[in-house]
């Protein structure tokens, strides 16, 4: 497994990718949903089938929760402590679960067939990309389970249970300082 600095760098890269991908998902889903609400289901760039409206709703939710997850992940990356990991992990998992639901509707939409406009095909591709990148982010954020030097929340300390507490030492690049 990579060292702690490499995990942090990879996490920063994944957060940047997730932010861009979720912004695209949010933009395309909101535009397509606006066209559906206006009754333009036969728009040449839209098309779709009965599962399209469900896919758009879950893509919109995945985009919003995903962007919130990225912002909390950036705060965790800056703090790099176990208490910030405890806040970032559940939101990242919820974001991944909602994206997985949107991915399920993407699969159903493709199976049902019918006309799929270019924006919908692009949205489908970005939902798949966001599902995989969010899963990778979840894995990297929990890398400390496998290597105590990689993550903030799983390092062995001098306290009895080996659980990092509020008085844990903060790891910077090469030196260890105590946080009060």
Automatic annotation (TrEMBL):
Residues 161-180 are annotated as: Disordered. The chain crosses the membrane at residues 12-33, 53-73, 85-105, 125-146. Keywords: Membrane, Transmembrane, Transmembrane helix. This is Uncharacterized protein. It comes from Rubroshorea leprosula.
